[in-house]
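Run log, item B.
One chain of 111 residues. Sequence copied directly from the ordering sheet:
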Amino acid sequence: MTQHTPGPWEINKRAFSPGIDIIKYGECMIATIGDAGYASCSEANARLIAAAPELLAALENLAGTASNLLAEAESDPTCAMVAVDMQDLGRLDEAHDKACAVLDHIAEPGG
């Protein structure tokens, strides 16, 4: 996966000009969110962008955990996890596939 600036990323509301900066203190500017005409959603967008490193870590954890659980269920149908409703197992499989697709998209240059 392409390396990104590690978190945490912080939100810095500008004091003297419109907009919000997302920064990694002491390192670099990640993004600038303008608020010309969109002030109502600018802060929410900035929070979402600033949370990207934590969201990525959570998604990687979910994908890994789901992969391990699905492999265990496939290799040992008598395992305790299979006692869970098969519909739940199907939803876990779908969530795993979606998480992996997002991670693949993030890893793609220009993706």
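Observations after the first pass:
- The first helix runs from residue 39 to 50.
- The chain is about 50% helix and 15% strand.
Flagged for discussion on Thursday.
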